[in-house]
Amino acid sequence: MCGRFALYSAYPKFATKVGISTVEGEPAPRYNVPPGTWITAIRRMSGDEPPHMDELWWGYKPKWAKGKASQPINARVETVATSGYFKSSFQKHRCLIPADGWYEWDKAASPKQPHFICREDREPIYFAGIYTEREDGSLGCAIITEPARGSAQDIHDRMPLILDDESLEPWLDVDLTDRETLRNVVHHLNAKLITHWPVSTKVNRPSGAGDESLINPA
What we know:
Elements: E1 5-7, H1 11-15, E2 30-33, E3 38-43, E4 52-58, E5 74-76, H2 87-92, E6 94-99, E7 101-106, E8 113-119, E9 125-133, E10 139-147, E11 158-160, H3 168-172, H4 179-185, E12 194-198
Parallel strand pairs: 4-10, 5-10
Antiparallel strand pairs: 1-2, 1-7, 3-4, 6-9, 7-8, 8-12, 9-10, 10-11
């Protein structure tokens, strides 16, 4: 799963890779981003427009889902294209959620030990996401997850679906709606690039911000 991540790189570092040339403002780094908060996402409104950055609510609940309907933060890659709750967004409302890494807890340790998981070269990563219009008119999103790969398997059986650089543009292509075509042109990041290390249990307290000490090896 993915229930906490960090985004501290300067926006231009990850924005230019997806064709965003102008970035207004520079939000403060966030080393401990929890669900149920506004997070940075990249999406396209139409095929004629370039990608742009937006703030989406991390929690997916379509406006037609009333009352106590679930508000998941993750969607499984195995079912996201076929589930009645997600499939419309998978077709038409895909987004990228930039991050520098994410946290996962090793349940084999006692007490549970948090780890920070990221690229070995510390380059930003891009989670595959979907979004929907919420009942109040704002947009909410979910991060797609897949079975853990590479060293991430040491910590948890699931991980966010991280896209390689060649997959960023087709993932954002609003005109690309066929599931099989997407499967052929969108690929996850090479698992050999993923690394992790134990960090302080201070990350157990979701703050939404935190500081650099949260990702230092424990």
